[in-house]
Amino acid sequence: MDMTTTSFGVSRAGTSSQVNAKSIAYWVATGLVAFLVGSGGLAYALQVPDVVQGVVVLGFPVYFVVLIGVWKVLGSMAILAPRLPLLKEWAYAGLAFELTGAAAASFATAAGPWHVAAPLSIVALLAVSWALRPESRRLPGTTLSGMWAAQR
Questions:
Q1: Is the predicted pLDDT of residue 89 greater than 50, yes or no?
Q2: Taking the CB of the first residue and of the last residue of the chain, which one, N or C, has fewer CB atoms within 10 A?
């Protein structure tokens, strides 16, 4: 068994394959989120006509397309950047708000099941990325088990 140390100096046991599998799952989920959200954000920021039309149909003004696009690109960069745990927490939250808002707006305007399912699927990947992020990318106490323990 391989012993790893948390940021609090507490040792925990885990096999190398468990640690590697967790790391691989984290990077796959994070990479997919960064690519999907970042490339979409770039299309928003560059005002690709089909993208602008799709957002305007939902009832948002054109200037909002550029604003949300820039935020999406910055959020994607933040979750990929090393360290900066507070910035990452804000980026994860912002991306979750944006994606669930996109799903809600699509649902409210009957944009079709794909336009609801796609952002919610990315939210699921975002949650996996957040839950599996390494210690160096976390604020102290921001694990699922840490949050549940704090509520007791």
A1: yes
A2: C
pLDDT at 1: 42
Higher pLDDT pick, 15 / 36: 36
* Intra-chain end-to-end CA distance of the chain, in Å: 32
CA distances from 65 to 15, 26, 30, 54 (A): 46, 29, 24, 10
Residue 145 lies in a domain: no
pLDDT at 10 over 90: no
Annotate the chain with DSSP letters as a single string. -EEEE-TTS-EEEE-HHHHHHHHHHHHHHHHHHHHHHHHHHHHHHTT-HHHHHHHHHTT--HHHHHHHHHHHHHHHHHHHSSS-HHHHHHHHHHHHHHHHHHHHHHHHTT--HHHHHHHHHHHHHHHHHHHH--GGGS-TT-SHHHHHHHH-
Establish if 107 belongs to a structural domain: yes
Q: Assess if residue 108 is contained within a domain.
A: yes
The number of distinct structural domains making up the chain is: 1
Structural domain boundaries enclosing 45 = 33-132
pTM of the model: 0.79
